[in-house]
Amino acid sequence: MFDFFIIVPLVLLGLFVLYIVLTCYLEKKRTKQFRAFAEEKHLSFVETADFADINDLTEFYLFAKEQHAVYIRNLMEGQIDNVYVKLFDYEYAYGKFRRWGQRGNNLPIIKQTVLLMASDQIYLPHFTLRPSHVINRNHPHFCEGQIVIKNNQKFTMAYLLQGADEDAVRAIFDREVCNFYANLLTKTTEGNRGRLLYYYQNHLVDGNLLAEFVKEGLKALSLFTSKRKQIFSPKQQ
Predict the structure, then answer these.
(1) Under 8 Å CB-to-CB from 19, ≥6 apart: which residues?
(2) Nearest-angstrom CA–CA distance, 82 and 49
(3) Tens digit of pLDDT for each residue in 117-154?
(4) Quick check: 113 and 199 in contact, CB under 8 A?
């Protein structure tokens, strides 16, 4: 019996140490993959960033006031195919008392790899597009101002589309764009003027799949680029 009370804590301690070592190893491996991708694409790279590095993104739902950053890692930025991009891992949590670096057990941690694209070839109304199955129903803006695309049932059932200017948002979500997203079913996209944010909600992209992820995001950007000549309402000018 005495041995039992000694062995069990030692085993648990060993498993905890193993978990920490494995986590550190995987994080270092991931950083190495991001750094290699940044070098391949001639992008700048910072292993650990500060929220100030992305504070210009607070207009987007992902960086809303109700959310607090826990970390920003593997931040790279520069030009890819004549498009300015930022690519990084972002972790946040909901909660009034969350502070930078704190991890309260009562608040869910949400992680994702984020791709920001900026181009003078687009001018978008402010919109948020999220897969229905990943929506946080406790969020203050859940289902607020939902825009239904009536002629594409598959898209409407799979996504929650929101935007202040409903007519302008409808104008860019034509059959081509809706079909693109209806065949993916997992991507979250936010747009405003000349910027597009693209990510999988609560999912970190595998380091070996960064090129595919960026290619997919640039494809989405190209679809919205083709809508540049759409006529938006005066409040979007």
Answers:
(1) none
(2) 24
(3) 999 989 999 999 988 876 554 454 555 668 888 888 88
(4) yes
Say which amino acid occupies 179: N
CB-facing half-sphere around the CA of 156: CA atoms within 13 A: 11
The half-sphere exposure of 64 on its side-chain side, counting CA atoms within 13 A, is: 14
Extract the tokens encoding 78. 């520069």
Give the predicted TM-score (pTM) of the model.
0.80
Closest CA to 65 of 140, 3, 124, 130: 140
Range of the domain at 176: 2-236
Closest-CA residue to 224 (of 178, 157, 165, 183): 178
Q: How many residues does the chain have?
A: 237
- The beta strand positions in 102-204, using DSSP E, are 109-118, 124-131, 159-163, 187-193, 195-200
Give the residue among 90, 57, 78 at the shortest CA–CA distance from 214.
Answer: 78
Which residues is 91 bridged to in the sheet?
A: 71, 111
Maximum pairwise Cα distance, the chain = 79
Question: 195 forms bridges with which residues in the sheet?
Answer: 118, 192
Identify the three-state secondary structure at position 184: coil
Q: Tokens representing 190?
A: 């936010």
DSSP 95-123: -TT--TT---TTS-EEEEEEEEEE-TT--
Number of structural domains in the chain: 1
Rounded CA Rg of the chain? 20
